Amino acid sequence: MTARHEVGPRSQKIVAQERKHLAAGSQGFSLYAGLAMARGVDCTLIDEDGNEYIDFIAGIAVGSIGHCHPHYVEALKRQVERITFGSFTTETRAKFLDLLSSVTPDGLTRVQMFSGGAEAVEAALRLVHRDVIRYQTAGEIGAIIVEPMQGTAGNIIPPEGFLRAVASIAREHDALFIADEMITGFGRTGAMWGSDHDGVVPDIMTVGKGVGGGYPLSCVISTEKITSSKPWSNPSASSSSYGGSPLASAAGLAALEIILKEDLVKNAERVGKVMLGRLEVLKEKYRCVGEVRGRGLMLGIELVGDRTTKEPLSKTVTQALYQECLRRGLVAMTYAPSVRINPPLTIKEDAALAGLAILDEALEVVVRDHGLQ
Hints:
Elements: H1 9-19, H2 28-33, E1 37-41, E2 44-47, E3 52-55, H3 58-61, H4 70-80, H5 91-101, E4 110-114, H6 117-128, H7 132-138, E5 143-146, H8 162-172, E6 176-181, E7 204-207, E8 218-222, H9 224-227, H10 246-261, H11 264-285, E9 289-295, E10 298-306, E11 311-312, H12 315-328, E12 330-331, E13 338-341, H13 349-369
Parallel strand pairs: 3-12, 5-6, 6-7
Antiparallel strand pairs: 1-2, 2-3, 4-8, 7-8, 9-10, 10-11, 10-13
Helix pairs in contact: 4-10, 5-10, 11-13, 12-13
């Protein structure tokens, strides 16, 4: 049995202080935990009372390079001492764009930088709207945007050929194909891009989350021809006050350097296969584990009350599972029937298996206490 963690007095005090002012609607995993985190090291979180947790959330796939990677920390320290905001060219941004363009799909070498996923997706759709009048009035399709693998829906992996079929439909209708690689990009699925698994090169990509290693950074990436479209290409027409800032560029450069130098794409593929195999064992052991799936370190579990009807496990049970995981030192999105597992790409096999061992223990307790066997 693993050591049991309880919400300590430091966490209780800080959380109470924050909740006097914090509006409703924050991330569920934070609210349900009631913990105040003090620091993080690679794939481990440490709360204000010194309890340690294996991190299977990574800020919902944001922390591609783990917590406080030394190279990342030093890069941001150097940048914060020089210049931190503004849209002027910096050597750091030039280096980041060079490196980023070296790993993008063929022809996608033009990048516009933003600060969040929604901002980048909106910008990509505005880029499509050079033909808004013709498409909207004629009822035609301007673009199709799709995640190569669905994240928020539960880390759902489509069948082989799905993305090629969607891209083909877009081109049949003379529409642009946009791959939303916010979660799937930068090695998360065991390939640099989620579209790589189907051999598809999109017209436009939106990227974010893992690209900044935790710093708010997103991008629209496309071709010279498409990004030259008016009015999107006019000065200030597609810009952002925060996008491409010196600090964001330093974060993006450092994160991508780490991903490439440490071969984290390959690590995601290898460790992900090991984790998927262990999840299959849990499926055999517990009837409430109705399905396991995944690619790379983008894994999913469906928790069910009945495997035949596939009725989702009740929130009462999944909330209990979340708390049992926390008590044993694992933060994972087990508070809902569709469980998403997205550890940092730096996770080693031993840490991954330790986290799944905790999940196994927690499932055993919940199954027993709620009469699920």
